[in-house]
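User: I'm preparing a small set of examples for a lab meeting where we compare how different chains pack in three dimensions. I only have the primary sequence for this one, and I'd like the structure in token form so I can line it up with the others. Please keep the answer compact; I'll paste it straight into my notes.
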Amino acid sequence: MPERETIVISGVGLASPNGNSLPEFRANLLGGVSGVRPWEIRHVGKTLAGVCSFDPLRHQSKKELRRGTRAGSLAVYCANEALADAGVDLGRYDPARVGVYTGITEHGNVETENEIHQVSQYAFDLAYWSHHHNPRTVANNPAGEVTLNLGLKGPAYSIGGACAAGNMGLIHAAQMLLLGEVDIALGGGVSEAIHTFGIFASFKAQGALAAHAEPARASRPFDADRNGIVVSEGGCLYVLERKSDALRRGARLLAEIAGWNVNSDGHDFVLPSAEGQNACMRGALAHAGLAPEDIDVLNTHATATPSGDEVECAAIRAVFSDSPRTFVNNTKSYIGHAMGAAGALELAGNLPSFVDQVVHPTINLERLDPRCELRNLVANEPRKISRCDHVLNMSFGMLGINSALIVRRPRA
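Assistant: Understood. Below is the structure token output for the 412-residue chain.
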């Protein structure tokens, strides 16, 4: 069987609660800067959230913002920033050969909740219901808004993978490039989760919504005093290309896609399975032709729920128990859980490790839960390592979906 062509990442565009570019995001990860702050939402009241502060008017008009969605705006911002970062001139591409693949956890809840609230103020007179509601709530909206903004005519749709979706947007983009369906792709994930009270209310009803007197310390994966999820918004899209095409145009290569795996637990609506996560990690390693000891940085999914972190750590120990050079970190401790954008943002924060060989830490880890003990868990301070050739990024979601993505240092 011939060796498959290498797919590379040549650009990153992101909006996160603690940075709106990769350099800013990375600096704040190394500096221990949290993006979690007080937040208040209808029917829930005062809570905490990871809130983005990007400039939506940088790439959209006020009219486009009024007609579109927050998730669409995040996608448009990230797409434009990624293309600029990659030095891509879309005028040199057939617009029908450019793909857009946005991972999402959910889409449409915000818009539906807002419209119901609006008409309730007018005795449910549907004359007050927005005629923009349907295009706002279809699942392909974020990707579709990107095509409208950039004039693209290729395949563009959303990948509904719960909180595993950020990885899956990249995986699907890589697959479409390997199939020859597109010549260049935008892949990653977006989330507008903090604008829907339903998500907060559901987590609160489950007892899974984080609380802390100091917002910056609320998201605390692996800590014995962790008490739940900080809901966040965000987005991160990547420019992906076949390596031969990227080199032909003189592109800067940030990483190569080495391998991936997506599977399902077949176990429970919300409870994770160490067996399923274990199989997902091993599947990605096999796909990449790597052993556990080849992984230098492992970014965990851990959301700071009591059982979720414990299950994930058990899965990691089972796979990496004999891997002394694998260093483990977590990004949600800074920004909370950005749902469909989580995997894509978390990968971005670790890409600079290929250059500086520094692993950003998990912050807010003051008292390690013994059930979450992991070899080489980087806590509270950055860690300089001697080698960084491979990063494993893990993301898991409700209904038992798991994704694992491995990227490697660009090869000559």
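A couple of notes for your slides: The first strand starts at residue 7 and ends at 15. Residues 70-86 form the longest helix (17 residues).

User: Perfect, thanks.
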